[in-house]
Amino acid sequence: MKELKAYLVEKLKQELPGKQAQIEAIPYRKIDYGTFNMDGAKKSAVLILFYLKGNDPHIVLIQRPVYEGAHSGQIAFPGGKVEEEDRDIVATALREANEEVGVVIKDVEVIGRLTDMYIPVSNFLVTPVVGFVDYLPHFIPDTREVAEIFNLKIEELTNVEELETTKVKLANKLAVKAPCFNFNGKIVWGATAVMLNELRWILRDHSKS
């Protein structure tokens, strides 16, 4: 775990894969995401939290409840929009992770960020914040925000050679094919898949060592 953290600390200081990695997992590949005016985008953040479960590094993912909205039932990182009391985007990620799954804020060592991700359907600009804790957290779901919590073993992510494709129904009832990860039947697509794919790219060299 110490070796993984040291590796990521250095990698996150370097130029990130960014759009090159993101576009591989973007659901609507014909859209040029560089054409969107994001001046009015709502700021938000998620926490990509690393921890040990057994002897293996994991990160936490959640499944959203089913509701009338763009991200109903989707698998995501803990996170949400910036609030007035947040001193910065890192504070947003930590507060949201605390509220949604009970992460103890003071225990998280933040080591960097991935590339911001814009979500056109909800007009959110999401900052993925990367952090570590040195124990297995006792996750407590906020049932209003979280239907299920599950631990993703990092090896499951780094073993993915290429993304699968799934058919998803959008909020407007249209069905589209989207790149996705399939983790033991858990289908991850959309913004979370985009962020996970950049993390997968970043971890490539570490998984080979």
Radius of gyration computed on alpha carbons: 16 Å
Strand content: 25-35%
Distance between the termini: 14 Å
- Pick out the low-confidence regions: none
Spatial shape: globular
CATH architecture descriptor name: Alpha-Beta Complex
Number of helical stretches of at least 4 residues? 5
Task: Characterize the structure shown.
With 209 residues, the chain is an alpha+beta fold. The chain has a single domain (2-203), classed as Nucleoside Triphosphate Pyrophosphohydrolase (Alpha-Beta Complex). It contains 5 helices and 11 strands, in the order ααββββαββββαβββα. The protein has helices at residues 2-11, 19-22, 89-101, 154-158, 191-208, and strands spanning 42-53, 56-63, 75-76, 79-81, 109-113, 117-119, 124-132, 148-153, 164-169, 175-183, 186-189. Strands 1, 2, 3, 4, 5, 6, 7 and 8 form an 8-stranded mixed beta sheet that branches. A 3-stranded antiparallel beta sheet has the order 9-10-11. The radius of gyration is 16 Å and the shape is globular.
